[in-house]
Write a structure and sequence with these properties.
The protein has 364 residues and is of the alpha+beta class. It folds into 2 domains: 106 residues, Phosphorylase Kinase, domain 1; 240 residues, Aminoglycoside 3'-phosphotransferase, Chain: A, domain 2. 45% of the residues lie in helices and 12% in strands. The structure holds 2-acetamido-2-deoxy-1-O-phosphono-alpha-D-glucopyranose and magnesium ion (MG). Magnesium ion binds next to loops.
Length: 364
C-alpha cells in the first residue's frame, strides 16, 4: 500500500504532537484516511482527494452545515449527537480543514469507538439497520435548505452522462485495454437507452429532488459492536440534492449482494431478494410518508441503475488507466465492473419481485 505523506504542520495544526500512533484506515476508494491516537483520544485524519473533488472547501462548507443541522436534530430528539453524527474536529485556530505547505487538503473527524462497518454482510438484522439508518437520514434532512448546498461533483448520479463518459473512455482507449473488455462494452451498449429512466423522470418533473447522501454503501454506516444497531452514517462528501432512488439503490447494490464489490469469483456474487426485503423494510420504517407513490415505485429502478452506473464508472476508469478509484492490482477496476454487471443482470430478472416487495411493505 502506498505511504501517506503527512506533514508536520498538519499534526501541529491539530495539536497532535505528540501522538501515540498513526495508522492507515483502508476501505475508501477516494480519500487517504489515517487513524491518529493521542492522549486526548482517537481521530480520523483525512487527506482529501482534490483530483476527484475539485473544491474541497465546498465539501467542508456542506459538511459543516449538514453536521451542525443534524447534531441539533439528534439533540432535540434526545439522542447522542457525538455518536450519531460525525463531528468535525477543528484545528487549534478553529478551522474545519487545513491546507498543508504542498497544497494538500486535510480534515479531521472524531473517531467513533466500539463501532464497525462492513463491505457486505449476510445478517438480515444488520441490513435492516442499514435501511433504517438511511431512511432516517433522508427524513432528518427533509427540511434542510437544499439551495445552500454546493454541487460537489456535477452530474454525479446522472447515469446517461456517466454513459457518455464511458463512451469517451472507449473512444480514447488511453490504457490500451479496450480489446480485453469487448464483452463488457457490449453488455453496457444493450442498456444505453434504459439507463436514462430516472433522469428522464427527473427532467419531466415527475420525481422531486431531495437532499441525499449519494454514497450509501453499507461500509458508510457504523454499526454498534454491542447492540448491532446502526449508529452513524459517515462519508458526507457527496451530500447534495438527488433522487430518493439514488440513495436507496446505491445501498441495495452492496446490502443485497452476497459478496464484496470486488469479489472476483462471480459464482459467489448474487443479488439476494431476502436481503433486498430486509433493507426495504428498514428503509420504509424510518423514511416516513414523505415519498410520493412514483418515488416508491422507482426504488427498484434505483437499485438496477445505481449498480449499472458504478459498474460503468469502474469500466471507464479501467479503460482510462485507473486514474479515479484506488486500485490494489491492475485488474481491480475490471473485476469490480464485472461484479457489478453480474448483479445488474440478476436485478433485471428480479425486478417484478422487487416491485412486489416494495408494494407490500408500503401498505403494511
Ligand atoms: C467511491 O471512496 P468511497 O468509498 O467513498 C465513490 C462512490 C462509489 C464507491 C464505490 C466520490 O466511494 O461514488 O459508489 O466508491 N465516491 C466518489 O465503492 O466517486
Ligand atoms: Mg465517498
Amino acid at each position: 500500500m502506498e505511504q501517506i505523506a503527512i506533514r508536520p504542520e498538519v499534526l501541529k495544526a491539530y495539536g497532535f504532537k505528540p501522538f501515540l500512533s498513526i495508522r492507515p484506515l483502508t476501505g475508501g476508494h477516494i480519500n487517504n484516511t489515517l487513524l491518529v491516537e493521542t492522549i486526548r483520544g482517537k481521530f480520523v485524519l483525512q487527506q482529501m482527494n482534490h483530483f476527484v473533488f475539485p473544491s474541497p472547501a465546498d465539501i467542508m462548507e456542506n459538511m459543516v452545515g449538514v453536521t451542525d443541522f443534524l447534531q441539533k436534530k439528534v439533540l432535540e430528539q434526545g439522542g447522542d449527537p457525538k455518536r450519531e453524527i460525525i463531528t468535525i474536529r477543528r484545528t487549534l485556530s478553529g478551522d474545519p480543514y487545513i491546507i498543508d505547505e504542498t497544497g494538500e487538503y486535510w480534515r479531521c473527524l472524531c473517531y467513533i469507538d466500539h463501532a464497525k462497518s462492513y463491505e457486505s454482510t449476510e445478517r438480515l438484522d444488520t441490513i435492516f439497520e442499514a435501511g433504517r439508518a438511511f431512511g432516517n437520514f433522508q427524513r432528518m434532512l427533509e427540511d434542510y435548505p437544499a439551495g445552500t448546498l454546493h454541487e460537489i461533483i456535477e452530474n454525479f448520479h446522472n447515469t446517461p452522462e456517466r454513459f457518455r463518459q464511458l463512451e469517451q473512455a472507449i473512444a480514447s482507449n488511453k490504457a490500451s485495454r479496450k480489446a480485453q473488455v469487448e464483452k463488457e462494452i457490449l453488455f453496457t451498449q444493450k442498456r444505453k437507452e434504459g439507463c436514462r429512466f430516472l433522469m428522464d423522470l427527473l427532467q419531466k418533473g415527475e420525481l422531486p429532488l431531495r437532499v441525499t447522501h449519494n454514497d450509501t454503501k453499507l461500509s458508510n454506516i457504523l454499526i454498534d459492536e454491542e447492540t448491532g444497531k446502526a449508529i452513524c452514517i459517515i462519508d458526507l462528501d457527496t451530500v447534495m440534492p438527488g433522487l430518493a432512488a439514488f440513495d436507496f439503490g446505491d445501498s441495495i447494490r452492496a446490502c443485497a449482494s452476497t459478496a464484496a464489490e470486488d469479489e472476483a469469483d462471480l459464482t459467489k456474487v448474487h443479488f439476494d431478494l431476502s436481503r433486498f426485503e430486509a433493507y426495504t423494510k428498514g428503509f420504509l420504517s424510518s423514511v416516513g410518508n414523505a415519498l410520493t407513490p412514483l418515488e416508491l415505485d422507482t426504488l427498484p429502478d434505483g437499485a438496477r441503475l445505481m449498480t449499472f452506473e458504478v459498474g460503468i464508472r469502474f469500466l471507464a476508469d479501467y479503460l482510462n488507466g485507473d486514474v479515479y478509484f484506488k486500485t490494489g492490482y491492475p485488474e481491480h477496476n475490471l473485476v469490480r465492473a464485472r461484479n457489478q454487471f453480474k448483479l445488474v443482470e440478476e436485478m433485471e430478472a428480479a425486478e417484478p419481485q422487487m416491485k412486489r416487495i416494495v408494494q407490500n411493505l408500503k401498505i403494511s
